[in-house]
Amino acid sequence: MNPIVVIGNGVASVAAVEAFRKYDKETPIIIFSDEPYHAYYRLRLSSLIGDTLNLDKLYIRKPEWYRELNIQVRLDNKVIGIDTEKKSVVLENGDTVFFSKLLIASGSSPFVPPVPGADLPGVFSIRSLDDVKRFNDYIANKNQGAVIGGGLLGLETAWALAKKGKKVQVDVTKRFIAWDTVADIDGTIKGYNIYHNKDDKDEKISTVTATEFEIPEGNL
What beta strand segments (E) does the chain contain? Predict the structure, then answer.
């Protein structure tokens, strides 16, 4: 019997194979991931900014969990093609794998505003553990920077940077900021007030509206 193939290695894929195994413990399952790590909580990545990475704190399920449930995880194996007629997937290394059923659970990607300077060195979007590694390496000797977006993840990232002594500007659009999140992060973020559309140089965190990116020397 051809296996069930899952493309993607996040919360959705783990939940799907866990649910399937409750009803069928025999059919082979293969998870394909283009990353070298087992599935981890991406929402927790902001907590690792500026810190030593610890995978044990991020794993959704430990590697032995997959072995116990007879689930094969093929890491660093990117799927680049799907043939629905032949019921097969093509990997980046040229291999072809046939499936009985296919689940695509590849997740989403961060939105990068189409503004001038978005491709400059020093402009990052964070979706993966490797993104955090590259970001941490870059900010090691930087003192200040900006976070684009005033939602949950943007504010958590700003707070993580502020805790490291960085001066952070939160850039928001359409007069939006997740004020409920601000209240949840210990009042006014440990005494660092957040102002809307005000660039206060004396505060650790301030907010303005982003129209373009510029990376002065020494900044994030």
Answer: 4-7, 29-32, 71-74, 79-83, 88-91, 96-98, 101-104, 144-148, 167-171, 205-208
Give residue limits of the domains in the chain.
4-104, 129-208
Q: Indicate whether 68 pLDDT > 50.
A: yes
Q: Tell me the per-residue pLDDT of 191-203, one tens digit each, with 9 for 90 and over.
A: 344 444 444 444 4
pTM: 0.74
> Same topology for domains 4-104 and 129-208, yes or no?
yes
User: What does the pLDDT look like over 93-136, one tens digit per residue?
Assistant: 999 999 999 999 998 887 787 878 888 888 888 889 999 999 99
- Gap between the Cα atoms of 167 and 220, Å rounded: 10
Sheet holding 96-98, edge to edge: 79-83, 88-91, 96-98
Fold of 129-208: FAD/NAD(P)-binding domain (3.50.50)
Please tell me the number of Cα atoms within 13 Å of 161 on its side-chain side: 29
Q: Distance (Å, rounded) from C-alpha 152 to C-alpha 5?
A: 33
Q: Which fold has domain 4-104?
A: FAD/NAD(P)-binding domain (3.50.50)
Scan for tokens 């009042």, then name that residue: 187
29/14 Cα distance (integer angstroms): 11
